[in-house]
Structure prediction request, 393 residues.
Amino acid sequence: MTGNRYVGFDLMRTTAVMLVLLSHSLVFLPFAWPKEYLFGFMGFAGVEIFFVLSGFLIGNIMYKAFQKKLDKNGLKVFWIRRWYRTLPLYYIVLILNIVLSVAIEGLHSVPLSTFMFPFFLQNFLWPHPYFFIPAWSLTIEEYFYLLFPLLLFFFMNIRKLPFRRSFLLMILLFFAVPFVLRTASFLLLESGYIQQYRPGFEAHWDLHIRKITLFRLDAIAMGVFTAYLMNNYKAFLQRYKNLLLLASLILLTGSIGLFFHFVYPNQINVVSAILIFPLFSVGFALAMPYLQDMKSMGFFSSPITFISKISYSVYLLHTLLSDFLFKYIYQESYSWPVQFMIWFSFIAVSIILSWFSYRYIELPFTERREKYGSEPGTGVTAVPAVEVINERK
Prediction:
């Protein structure tokens, strides 16, 4: 830890957002192979890191905030503080997407399903539209942080179950439901039943499995479960953090092999539809005791912390820039040096724009939520979703 930040978690977040950013930048690079392979894997891995890290940090907040009491005021404060952090920039970027699409390509370029975006319904149980693509993962996070504490409130206050039992029950529920839904979806897609009623339908792993909200809640639940373990068995996990890191590397290495064999390009089978997600989630979770105890990264600590802070803005804004460059600037006929210059410009401008967004949009709204005080029961300030500020716990 450096200052009041966990540098290991900053490293995770920076790695995640750079994987996503670089995956979408590959379109500007001249070589063909292995661009297609890297594009699919880097974006997938980056978002999976975000899910587990977000679940861990917010799970830690929920565990400390709600273990003594979870009442209606606690729920309200939790949700308001979440929404002050995530919703303002989300809605601003959504409006930007709509305005720019209409201005550049006309009203027909905005899908009818856009009305679902303000309510995070655009990929609830159906494929995400090809519009404002980064929003798909935000819907998963928003619904998790809406439903998890709400159901926890129900079991603690209506069913009168003890806190720890209720917390574990919620984790089990959020593991089980997505697993069952993915399994059912896989069986349905494999049965050919849909093709009977929709001739020409082709199942697509990315659209019909990976980006469906209710299919993916278990990725965040894995982070919450890790937070539960760290709160109850921290000494044990810290004692064996090196072995857990080794297990993480072995599992992730094997999972990467499975990804390229069974998933790419958009195959649907038992591994891709059911198993690949928890394998990566467990792999990233196993590394967290080691990363939480990381002291410093020397010279690299400052740039890693900087990218970590602006990661939410990078995640939401970068596709606007890539779409503009690809449509109006980039051409495959350009020489390699010119293509590399466009690629570098995309990375640099994305980071610069994101810093302005962080400084003049994210921070002011984050400061406004302080009138609601700290998290109930914790005495700390904390924030959710793709970019979560590391607070001293």
Observations:
- The first helix runs from residue 7 to 25.
